Amino acid sequence: PVARSSFDERALKTTHPLSAYLLRLMAIKKSNLCLSADVSTTNQLLHLAEAIGPSIVVLKTHYDLISNWDYHPSTGTGARLNRLARRHGFLVFEDRKFGDIGSTVQAQYVEGSAKIIEWSHITNVNMVPGKAVVDTMAEAAARWRQRKHYEVKTDISAEAPTHDGRKASIVSITTVSQHFEPVNSPRTHDEFAGDLFPDIEEPPLERGLLILAQMSSKGNFMTRAYTDACVESAREHRDYVMGFVSQETLNAQPDDQFISMTPGCQLPQDTEDEDAEIQGDGKGQQYNTPRKLVGIMGNDIVIVGRGIINAANPRTEAERYRRHAWEAYLERTSS
Amino acid sequence: PVARSSFDERALKTTHPLSAYLLRLMAIKKSNLCLSADVSTTNQLLHLAEAIGPSIVVLKTHYDLISNWDYHPSTGTGARLNRLARRHGFLVFEDRKFGDIGSTVQAQYVEGSAKIIEWSHITNVNMVPGKAVVDTMAEAAARWRQRKHYEVKTDISAEAPTHDGRKASIVSITTVSQHFEPVNSPRTHDEFAGDLFPDIEEPPLERGLLILAQMSSKGNFMTRAYTDACVESAREHRDYVMGFVSQETLNAQPDDQFISMTPGCQLPQDTEDEDAEIQGDGKGQQYNTPRKLVGIMGNDIVIVGRGIINAANPRTEAERYRRHAWEAYLERTSS
Ligand SMILES: O=c1cc(CO)n([C@@H]2O[C@H](COP(=O)(O)O)[C@@H](O)[C@H]2O)c(=O)[nH]1
Ligand SMILES: O=c1cc(CO)n([C@@H]2O[C@H](COP(=O)(O)O)[C@@H](O)[C@H]2O)c(=O)[nH]1
Known about the structure:
Chains A, B: Pathway: Pyrimidine metabolism; UMP biosynthesis via de novo pathway; UMP from orotate: step 2/2. The structure is a homodimer. In chain A, about 40% of the residues lie in helices and about 10% in strands. Chain A has twelve helices and eight strands. In chain A, strands 1-2-3-4-5-6-7-8 form an eight-stranded parallel beta barrel, surrounded by seven helices. One 6-(hydroxymethyl)uridine 5'-(dihydrogen phosphate) sits at the interface of chains A and B.
């Protein structure tokens, strides 16, 4: 059912560390907006992240649309995006839509050129190949977490006690692994400077998955039975699956604290009236307003791409979307 | 129904130029084997293509599993793979499993870093987002074909008549476009040297799509209704869709000349007995033998990955798979 409780309250109920972090972030930033950063160069991507960072809680990428994506683990596009994410307080979500047999997906997630697991807090999966694909991704994420936590621990114990006898309490993760991007290293004052939200904590060393349970496109083949199976699989992996890419909330049991993120969102142009008609993109995409998606359908986060990117002023347009989506959330939870 | 006619005969019936080419290739090379080249470096990939090229008609890639994939249009991994493809006579099939809304998939197919359409004769799509995804890919491929043919034509007319008055008949495509990989340029003697099959023609300047209609993995969610919709969409795009990745032939109407390629194929190890049991991979993959897949289920091409790659001698193992799959085809068409 549509959640009436606040994001803050839900942050206390979920057992997923990254979901809890995200829900707190939403409350602090008063934002339930995800930018779909569908641009074609690294510079465009980073500029957009810098400009719109204050308005969003998630930035969604299609890394393979970036013609000059730089794969370097510590100076490449993913690492730079992560630094902006920490500065502004948002999570990175690579919209990879994994959709192969388990063994292939594991390799695509962790290895290959893109090493998505290293720079993307969240990714998503198309469960068509069967539930094993979620099982194998969960397995890969658990191994990743173990490795990261081990690296951090090792580094602490390697650190000599300081002259006054206290152990150094700041863990410098940047030094422990060549392949590690400094996602969670302490923010320096300089990195911190532009930050509008000093209350934002470091994100936990965790990874999360969204299951693609319903699509926005016309005539898609996601049936009720298919969507139900997605929910079933999510319940089997509550420590890894954060929620869904879906068109409505899919929380049904008391323990369901899943977050639903929803693409296919636009506001009518040149008017604040959400009842004005919105055209699709002529290639199957269909749009709904934040009021419908958040207020009525009970989704938590709206995903907006061209509605913001193609605006004359993406920064102010992002703020307009943030405001509309947030008001829809306030209305939903005020009754 | 299971086809009783030969690949040669079917080459005459299909209206898809790339399917006709592939079917002729199969007859010449006596092979209905596709190698799934799931390795992790460019060198491994190219060595495998070189070693196993004579046994196969299609080489399937997951470009994003190659940690050092080189994106350069004329000297990169895709271009080099294409040169080996021309030398040995096989088509390249990037197993990308596109699965997004139309506008995103078009960009992923044609643009971004990988520019898959430039180096991969064949790719595939997961039709879950709806039929529009096939429509938009067909549109992109038609534009690509138009552009290529225009480039070739332009180059022909630019070419001066030779001294004896005849127009130069060999089109040197390498010169016409900076972004073009010399897929179809005439083979030099040197490139030709290792070629065991001098009858092999140049592949046509065409692109083809396979629709993922059935999967090999346990508990996958492809229902009969879903598979039927895939066939319907294929029939709407007979000039672009070559066939299916499926577990059985899906040809049902007289006009259906679709090719079915089938993963989840292994031979029992250390025995020629195809009735011996074969284990899955423990991550959802299920295996069947060529005799079952080609002989009984009526598939045309078997896709084999780990069965060949992990063998002590991949080259001789590939030959063993080629022989078994070809015999299954001969048996099927001899009755
Ligand atoms: O059902 C879906 C699922 C996704 C994400 O998983 N998307 C993606 O959202 C974004 C929507 O962009 P738009 O707001 O410009 O239409 C695109 O990146 C598209 O690939 C959709 O548009 N629909
Ligand atoms: O249903 C499918 C579809 C595909 C291809 O579209 N695949 C792919 O075939 C290959 C099978 O490899 P294997 O022979 O090593 O199991 C892998 O690349 C896998 O991703 C499958 O394994 N099953």
